[in-house]
Amino acid sequence: MIAVVPEPFPDESVRSIFQRIGLLNGGRRSRCDNSQGVLAVLVNQAGLPEKSLITDHSHVGYLRFVSKAHAAVPVHSHSDRFANPSLTRWPTAGPRVCLDCIGEDLHTRGISYYRRAHQLPGVEACLTHAASLVLPSPDQSGALLVGLPEKTRPVDPSFAEHLEHPVIERFVSLSMMALKSIIPIAPSGMTAALGRRAAMHGVRITVSGKGRRLSDWARSVLPAAWVATHFAALHQKPIGEHAPSVDDVFRARHVAHKTASYLLAMALLWDSAEDAMRDCAAAPTHTNCEVPTGAGRRALRAVLDGKSIISACRAEGANMQALEIAMRAALREGSFPTLGSIDGTC
Ligand SMILES: [Zn+2]
């Protein structure tokens, strides 16, 4: 067992707790061998509570905000929580720090620590101090816990211009909510929730569908510097070209994208971060919430106009399943035409 085990600070990341334990125990790495995994050391050798470490100090909730394999399973119960080292890594190249936070920590606690919220993709400022997050030079990151770093560079030099951008504000709020999420959403449920909202905004959900691309919308409203820093794959795509990292959030129902891609779509498609999270987190995952294709909807229209099911599907290039999905969606949305009264009159 480890001799000196500190109480974790608010929002302190598991890696930070691990490093502080090393410092407090004389820096003897043999006492904190992480070959079994950082989380295993903190639970089995330091005796820290497993559930709190995962929900309050790891990025598992953020990393698995949408997950097929772990959908509906609380993050502290995932079967690979000890064996998967990626769960205790930061989601960005880090560590990122706020110099004001470090200064206050050193003054009040005598030691500083790495916060989870500062390591999230697309988050450039400390929400407490509205100060730029910075990256210490690699040779200095090890000394951060006991002193201010001398050499740093900002995560994004343009951060001040992004602080009050409404879409970025929503993205940051959603990132904080995702960090604290406990129950992963299934890709199918997320795709369905996003697809319904896309239809309201005239955003296309297929590669060749009608409407504007979400990626084009993103680049038309977001500062280019922010996109270049946090969504490099999107930034490199020409306007008007399908950008899988953003546009495919409507299509992939069986594979989860990066969390930041979903959060960007939510920040664009909803006016309120709270509404976006409520609608997406509540999305059922069963198949009757699948998003209908354009061909399926057209085939349904043709059937309602008098064509036979087979000829309507042939004419519109839809299969029977696409027609079924379109029918269920129309019933859900209340967009099905009146079918007539029960006695058969129309
Ligand atoms: Zn701060």
TrEMBL record:
InterPro entries: TniQ
A UniProt-annotated Pfam family: TniQ
Domain TniQ: 5-133
Protein's recorded name: TniQ family protein
Organism: Roseateles flavus
